[in-house]
Write a structure and sequence with these properties.
This protein is an alpha/beta fold. It folds into 2 domains: 210 residues, Glycogen Phosphorylase B (Rossmann fold, 3-Layer(aba) Sandwich); 164 residues, Glycogen Phosphorylase B (Rossmann fold). It is built from 14 helices and 16 strands. The protein has an 8-stranded parallel sheet, with helices on both faces. Strands 13-12-11-14-15-16 form a 6-stranded parallel sheet, with helices on both faces. Helix 4 links the parallel strand 8 and strand 9. Helix 7 packs across helix 12. The chain is globular. It starts with a strand and ends in a 5-residue tail after the last helix.
């Protein structure tokens, strides 16, 4: 079942908590989950709660993180060296946990560090909750190892069933987790967007022209990590066949070179953030997200806030953000369906304008402060209802 608190800010949020947050990535690669976790830690501290974050680190992180971060010993993940896998809990981590004496442990990934933290919580009679960010069990299908998927799904059932609450980022993902038996008390922790930074006024035709686009071009944006599980192969195939569109690709990743080679007519900006990222969204005409592994889709919400017409896969995450034919278009996740939808949008300016306007209106509903206070309410309820395992 899913649950959402009725009140945005309760009296419980005024009670100060001690929280230990465990993550597989907190500051060395910027992505949607990491952005949400940093927003959470900053908000908790702003509300007066005490937080310690435990995660792998690197010498040169991707950005300045929020809060206090304690490094977990780790090694580079084979085949995906930009990510790291923690080898467990060091003596320093255990001592810092003992000193903190947390009221609650928040797990953001079912990796080995998360598993060890879950064991620590159960052994020391501390409630553990988990936020669900990625369908890791679907990744093997993109790397010729689909036989692994059922085993990973079984492990995820084991891991999340031992958490007091599981936070899904969208209703469609909550429904999917419930159907798959992943978690018992499944609640919503949706995402917010800065509607001041991400807005239609950031559209910049001079910048578009500097990239080689004409004013009449229909520019289709892809924003995200350039990895196979984001559906970049489908993006390439669809864009290669579509008529009257040009590609704008924002992001970096291990598939950057291969992506650029296959889509030689596209313009690749590399990683962008802040106002430059908002300018890229707003300067495009269509935002195309073919990924089926999204659990929410921060990039889709940012595009909506910029009034860029979204076209997304009809899958969990995107399906909770996009109301088909009202705030964007949803298509079955295959090239033929995407091609039909993309060419329809490219050829109908009135449709794009209508969808982009309602997408912007919908994005205004997503306030970070209200969303994060909901989560703090859930923390308090998890603590109040906790019964140690026997």
């Amino acid at each position: 079942m899913t649950h959402t608190p009725e009140n945005s800010v309760s009296e419980q949020t005024k009670k100060k908590l001690r929280i230990a947050l465990f993550s597989g990535n907190y500051n060395y690669v910027m992505d949607g989950p990491v952005r949400a976790l940093n927003m959470l830690v900053a908000h908790l501290e702003e509300r007066g709660h005490e937080v310690l974050v435990f995660a792998p680190t690197i010498k040169e992180p991707a950005f300045a993180h929020s809060g206090t971060l304690i490094s977990a010993p780790s090694f580079a993940l084979p085949g995906r060296s930009e990510y790291r896998l923690a080898v467990g809990m060091s003596g320093e981590i255990k001592q810092r946990l003992k000193d903190l004496n947390p009221d609650l442990i928040h797990l953001s990934a079912p990796d080995y560090l998360g598993y060890r933290a879950l064991r620590y919580a159960r052994k020391n009679h501390i409630p553990a909750v988990a936020s669900f960010h990625t369908r890791f069990d679907t990744y093997p299908r993109y790397y010729s190892a689909s036989w692994l998927e059922k085993y990973l799904t079984n492990y995820m059932r084991f891991f999340y069933s031992r958490c007091e609450q599981v936070y899904a980022p969208s209703q469609s993902m909550a429904d999917e987790l419930s159907e798959d038996g992943i978690g018992q008390d499944i609640r919503l922790w949706t995402r917010g967007v800065d509607n001041v930074q991400f807005n239609p006024d950031k559209r910049d035709m001079e910048w578009r022209r500097s990239l080689g686009f004409s004013d009449d071009d229909i520019v289709v944006a892809f924003v995200g990590r350039l990895v196979l599980e984001k559906g970049i192969d489908v993006f390439v195939e669809t864009m290669s066949r579509a008529k009257g569109v040009k590609a704008l690709v924002v992001g970096e990743g291990p598939e950057s070179a291969a992506f650029a080679e296959k889509l030689s007519t596209g313009h690749f900006t590399g990683h962008l953030k802040g106002d430059k990222l908002a300018r890229a969204y707003a300067s495009a005409d269509i935002f195309f997200n073919p990924s089926i592994t999204e659990t929410f889709g921060n990039v889709t919400l940012e595009a909506m806030a910029c009034a860029t017409t979204p076209l997304c896969a009809n899958a969990a995450g995107s399906a909770s953000l996009i109301e088909h034919e009202t705030t964007g278009l949803l298509a079955e996740p295959n090239t033929e369906a995407f091609l039909v939808a993309l060419e329809r949008l490219a050829g109908d300016g009135e449709l794009r304008n209508r969808l982009s306007a309602t997408a912007r209106e919908r994005a205004l509903d997503y306030s970070w402060a209200v969303i994060l206070d909901h989560l703090i309410d859930d923390y308090h309820e998890a603590i109040r209802k906790f019964r140690p395992a026997t």
